[in-house]
Amino acid sequence: MIALNIILIFVCITVLYYLLRIRKQLAEWLISLKSMHETPERYLFVKGNDILSDINFEINGILKKSRRQLAKLQRAEAASRQLLTDLSHDVRTPLASLIGYLEALDSQTAKEKEEYIHVAYRKALDLQELIDMLFQWSKLTSGEQPYQMEIYDINELTREIMIGHIPVFEKNHISFSANIADDEWFVKIDRMAFARIINNLISNAVKHGKCSLIEIDIQKNKGNVQLSVSNNGAGIPEPDIPFLFERLYKCDTSRPETGNGLGLAITMELTRAMSGDIAVRSIPGGMTAFCLTLPLIVREN
User: Fold this and answer.
1) What is the Rg, in whole angstroms, of the alpha carbon atoms belonging to the chain?
2) 3-state class of 143 per DSSP?
3) Domains of the chain in sequence order
4) For residue 254, what pLDDT is reported?
5) Which residue positions in the chain have pLDDT lower than 70?
6) Which of 269, 157, 290, 118 is nearest to 211 (CA)?
7) Rounded Cα distance, 233 and 283, in Å
8) 266 close to 278: Cβ distance less than 8 angstroms
9) 44: helix, strand or coil
10) Residue 85's closest CA among 245, 255, 244, 248?
11) Distance, CA of 168 to CA of 166 (rounded, Å)
12) Which of 36, 40, 58, 233 could cysteine-pair with 210, CB 3.0–4.6 Å?
């Protein structure tokens, strides 16, 4: 009987000890949680190696995940504000120029009116391109861009895209060559996304490369297909290369024809969506080459 009483007393003391420990730990957690308003980087801490430490570990995991999500949201919010600011400027510039030329038409001669209308038309096209890119980027970043992945012969598809650029090459006095095999090399891609990538790379070379030659080359390499779009233009300064595919990055903001900084960012997003990769190498004053790599699909006969 005495032994049973001793056991009961010991159990009661043990339970009381753990209840007091839990109460103390909860009080410390509450203080720590309140203090996180001022020092959000803090974590909870508990001594020992029991269920309280397990609970503490899980709480810290939730806090860590929440902080990452909060930091991601803050970066996205800051990026959105910056995007809105930059694009507002990019939209206002051609829009103001367009309005200015249209307002000046009444006071011009017939010849000057024709020239002003031509300039206004170019400004309207620039504005349309910017809006199209903005909508494209919005769909990509929101995950609303639909993809229809199918198997295509990349050689034949690239030839079809190139044909559409011949008038642009001729208008800008740019020679072009294509090293594309007659064989069928299959890749699984979204046709529209692939066309957008090639169009962006060619358009980038025509507008900003100051080149007289554009070359398209397609090769097979270790289970992949590598498509390069190169030009013999001014080249890209080495410090700019790591940032080319970042949103809104512009190599030379002093140039009046500088783009909106979305084209290559869209190109990167579309490439990743098709499980591909894209890289650039450039020699200032020599050449610039964008190399698109896509997984090769082997079709059994």
Assistant:
1) 30
2) coil
3) 85-141 (1.10.287.130), 150-295 (3.30.565.10)
4) 40
5) 1, 4-5, 10-11, 15, 17-19, 21-22, 25-58, 75-94, 101, 106, 108, 110, 247-261, 299-301
6) 290
7) 9
8) no
9) coil
10) 248
11) 5
12) 233
- Which 3 state secondary structure label does DSSP give 223? coil
Burial class (CB within 10 angstroms; exposed 0-12, middle 13-18, buried 19+) of 239: exposed
Return d(Cα 199, Cα 123) in angstroms, integer: 20
- What is the C-alpha separation between 58 and 288, in angstroms, rounded? 51
The encoded tokens of residue 33 equal 């949680």
Rounded to 10 degrees, the C-alpha dihedral 106/109/110/111 comes to -130
* 208 contacts 168 by C-beta, under 8 angstroms: no
Phi, psi of 209 (to 5 degrees): -80, -20
Question: Which residues lie below 8 Å from residue 232, measured CB to CB, with a gap of 6+?
Answer: 211, 212, 213, 286, 287
Positions of E strands within the chain: 149-153, 175-179, 186-190, 213-221, 224-231, 277-283, 287-295
How many whole angstroms separate alpha carbon 126 and alpha carbon 258? 11
pTM over 0.85: no
Decide: 246 and 268 in contact? Cβ < 8 Å: no
